[in-house]
């Protein structure tokens, strides 16, 4: 039987969550006169952004191609609703643009660019990744010799960035990245998407609950400590606005695990503090 067309109704998403607002009010970090602006900012859509793989030998050629084939022609349109992608100042070879989905669909160059980005993302020459998600790996100051735990790694956009940063100063780094996820199927994504795109001898994927991460023993059978721990447990489903609160970097911050119904008024029952369970060297 043919499926009826328009058998559903799309309603505008109401970006209101009193528990979330109360949580922030209780923190008293936003001055009252900036509250409305803060909430309004959280409600804004995130820009579309993408990052070209730094290890890609042809990255300059790819950037030149993007500039000539898409960015310059988009600027030449002189249309106020169309914003050609611009460099993100704090990330190498990353670009972002503020445009609604309907604008992207409305213009042939933008449609082509969108398709191009999807294909390049599939091939692995670039990652379609939110700009906010690009920040935590940069703050970790990754060095080639570091032992790093990416505690909640899948689907692996930050894992990929960490691998790139490890290889930035040395093509044969001595360090090791342990990319972990509690979800077995999402570990499969890490192996078959991230590591396929970014083959490296310096990353292993493991599948365990990060709140009970076992000690890693060194060659002398003594526990080894991580130089860096990235814990990106919070999923967008927990929040009412995508990107309003995403990556949490540890050590020093407590993070809640595994709740589908976040309670912003009190700490989650299953919290981990990698500092207190002895994962980090600090
Ligand atoms: C926000 S996503 C991580 C995104 C990822 N860091 C990236 O940049 O692509 C959160 C991940 O945490 C995982 N997760 C949730 N609870 C966990 C736990 N207790 N231990 C390990 N992983 C967990 C989820 O399966 C999910 O894949």
UniProtKB/TrEMBL annotation:
Q: Which UniProt keywords apply?
A: Methyltransferase, RNA-binding, S-adenosyl-L-methionine, Transferase
Q: Where do the segments described as Disordered lie?
A: 261-282
Q: Which Gene3D superfamilies match?
A: Vaccinia Virus protein VP39
The SAM-dependent MTase RsmB/NOP-type domain covers 38-282
According to the lineage, what is the superkingdom? Eukaryota
For biological process, the GO terms are: tRNA methylation
Pfam families, sorted: Methyltr_RsmB-F
PANTHER family for this protein: NCL1 YEAST -RELATED NOL1/NOP2/FMU SUN DOMAIN-CONTAINING, RNA CYTOSINE-C(5)-METHYLTRANSFERASE NSUN2-RELATED
Q: Where does S-adenosyl-L-methionine bind?
A: 181, 209, 232
Q: What is this protein called?
A: SAM-dependent MTase RsmB/NOP-type domain-containing protein
Q: Which family does it belong to?
A: Belongs to the class I-like SAM-binding methyltransferase superfamily. RsmB/NOP family.
The GO terms this record gives for MF are: tRNA (cytidine-5-)-methyltransferase activity; tRNA binding
Q: Name one GO cellular component term.
A: nucleus
């Amino acid at each position: 039987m043919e499926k009826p067309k328009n058998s559903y109704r799309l309603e505008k998403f109401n970006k209101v969550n009193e528990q979330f607002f109360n949580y922030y009010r209780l923190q008293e970090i936003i001055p009252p006169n900036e509250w409305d602006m803060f909430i309004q900012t959280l409600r804004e859509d995130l820009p579309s952004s993408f990052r070209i793989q730094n290890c890609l030998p042809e990255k300059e050629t790819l950037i030149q191609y993007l500039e000539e084939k898409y960015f310059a022609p988009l600027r030449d349109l002189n249309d106020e609703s169309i914003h050609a992608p611009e460099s993100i100042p704090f990330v190498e070879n990353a670009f972002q643009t503020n445009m609604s989905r309907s604008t992207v669909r409305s213009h042939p160059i933008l449609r082509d660019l969108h398709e191009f980005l999807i294909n390049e993302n599939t091939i692995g020459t670039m990652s379609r990744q939110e700009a906010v998600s690009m920040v935590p790996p940069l703050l970790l100051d990754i060095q080639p010799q570091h032992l790093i735990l990416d505690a909640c790694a899948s689907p692996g956009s930050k894992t990929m960035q960490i691998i790139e940063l490890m290889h930035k100063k040395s093509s044969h780094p001595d360090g090791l990245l342990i990319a972990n996820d509690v979800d077995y199927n999402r570990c499969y994504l890490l192996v078959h998407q991230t590591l396929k795109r970014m083959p490296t001898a310096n990353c292993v994927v493991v599948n365990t609950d990060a709140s009970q991460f076992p000690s890693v023993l060194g060659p002398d059978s003594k526990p080894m400590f991580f130089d860096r721990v990235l814990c990106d447990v919070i999923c967008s489903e927990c929040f009412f606005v995508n990107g309003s609160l995403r990556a949490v970097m540890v050590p020093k911050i407590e993070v809640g695990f595994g709740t589908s119904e976040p309670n912003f008024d009190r700490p989650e029952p299953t919290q981990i503090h990698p500092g207190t369970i002895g994962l980090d060297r600090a």
